[in-house]
Amino acid sequence: MKKFGLATQIFVALILGISVGAVFHGNETVMVIMEPIGDIFIHLIKMIVVPIVIAALVVSIAGVGDMKKLGKLGGKTILYFEIVTTIAIAIGLLAANLFHPGSGLDTSNLEKSDISNYEETTKTAESQGFAESIVHIVPKNIFESMAQGDLLPIIFFSVFFGLGIAAIGEKGKPVLGFFEGVLEAMFWVTNQVMKFAPFGVFALIGVTVAKFGIVTLIPLGKLVLAVYVTMVFFVFVVLGIIAKMSGTSIFVLLKVLKDELILAFTTASSEAVLPRLMEKMEKFGCPKSITSFVIPTGYTFNLDGSSIYQAIASLFVAQMYGIDLSITQQITLLLVLMLTSKGMAGVPGASFVVILTTLGSMGLPLEGVAFIAGIDRILDMVRTAVNVVGNSLAAIVMSKWEGEFNQEKANHYVDSIKQSDVA
């Protein structure tokens, strides 16, 4: 009998989790039993992310060892991220105008969720401002940033440390060897953690369905449909065109990332696939130096799925309260989202915080977000998967732009995937 692959195991776990959740809807005992399993899996994921990001960046930057080259790559990467996320926000706004998900919604039947935690975070984040966001990139204590899992300061430190290792030449080789060993060991740890993924997925989705029930989806079905249709359009049309322009195919990329996309979708955590994503993009022909820089940075600056969701959700709240935003106001909304979506990247519950900040700056009622909170998990799943596709494609685009993409390696890897599917 053919052994089930990780993607199949996760998919089966997803179906079982939804079934168990639906059967035991509202049953506190089942939730109490299942919740720790999901939490353990998320903790395992968070445990491996920071060491992998640090080791991968240090190894790749020390390998490049050229500040000028790194600065050039950084500039191009940020420019690409800004263009793509702006397109994503614009498409989200267009979709909200087309679908009108908030129009004619009977809010009396909807259960409000508590968003007080997000409102507190929003006040803190709003008081920071742009200058503070820039200052926050530079860590005052790298160990504090590691403890909090704050990726931007960690990336900043790792880049500098990698350059330091390159600058001291021979003396830096033992340190570089150490980080190469750490990276290899962490990839092994990742593979072991992934074996627990189906159990984590089963528990996470089971608890969500048991808590909110499938019935919650019906009144907000229009919003869920609008978000999902827009995300599919963005991946196959916008990212499809970008992939074609960079000499690859979005269908090939999706085939390569099959396991990671199912895992990202079911866990609603892009961190869950970060280590494997970097590993896969290297096998697909992207050099380690570019992959290790572009993908972790993209987790902060290139959240296409989150950008689309934030745009649709902001207009959804306006429509729900019968507030008609003019073209000028929607352009302002686009500009506000361009800034808030970048500045909030390291904040817990970032998407909610961005929406609350955006609504506040546009003078829209914040209470509307409470209605989305109940189904946020279902929306989070698809936006996480889209973020993963966007960041993987970014690594390919940057590799091609730098003229360092290994097409032969990519073809060989795709062939090996096809053969394993046939076997």
From TrEMBL:
This is Glutamate:protein symporter. The keyword Transport applies. Gene3D superfamilies: Sodium:dicarboxylate symporter. It comes from Metabacillus litoralis. GO terms for biological process: dicarboxylic acid transport. It is found in: Cell membrane. It is a multi-pass membrane protein. GO terms for cellular component: plasma membrane. GO terms for molecular function: symporter activity.
